[in-house]
Amino acid sequence: MSEAALDLAGIEKHYNRGTEREVNVLRGASLSVAPGEIVAMVAPSGAGKSTLLHIAGLLDTADAGRVRLGGQDMTDLGDRRRTRARRGDVGFVYQFHHLLPEFTAEENVVLPQLAHGARAGAAAARARRLLDVVGVGHRAGHRPSALSGGEQQRVAFCRALANAPRVLLADEPTGNLDPETSDTVFAALMDLVRETGLAALIATHNLALADRMDRVVRLTDGRVT
Length: 225
Hints:
Elements: E1 6-16, E2 22-33, E3 38-42, H1 49-56, E4 64-69, E5 72-73, H2 79-89, E6 90-93, H3 105-115, H4 120-133, H5 149-160, E7 167-171, H6 179-196, E8 199-203, H7 207-210, E9 215-220, E10 223-224
Parallel strand pairs: 3-8, 3-9, 6-7, 7-8
Antiparallel strand pairs: 1-2, 1-4, 4-5, 9-10
């Protein structure tokens, strides 16, 4: 069996809200995702799925537990090494695309590669390949304002995978789209993940989409089942 691309072990996260009692959001959550595997995470609002995704993607730190990417322990890395690992090993997609409005679709996919040290020509070529995979290559020269919501989200997928990460983390990536567009965009995401062979953990309320993934887990009472 191949080594897990993402391994979360015993993740705990607590918050103190003013004078109120401590809130235990995550209570020993554990989860492994293999390379090439697409896992749906289903959870009610407020269950901690965004917190778990942020910890998995090194945007936040856990109070206890370990985070491993590709077998490497990321838990105790310093800020500079965490930032580099986050840029190169993890791709994020959110419910809203957050594309840079002054840049074209292609430029939005090129920029993270340049920030990670890629050459301009190679970055542009990879951007065009990714955009072609999700069916928006013909829109590469358009700015986000000229793209539909579904097209913008497909560009956001490409941007998340621009640096060939080990893991894709997505938080309700089709949550602001109508059902037909959501289905089209999700199919493009599946194609992109299969094309690149990375591991994907996708939080969603859409049970129909979740059932199309390789595995469904639930986050309940701070634990993954």
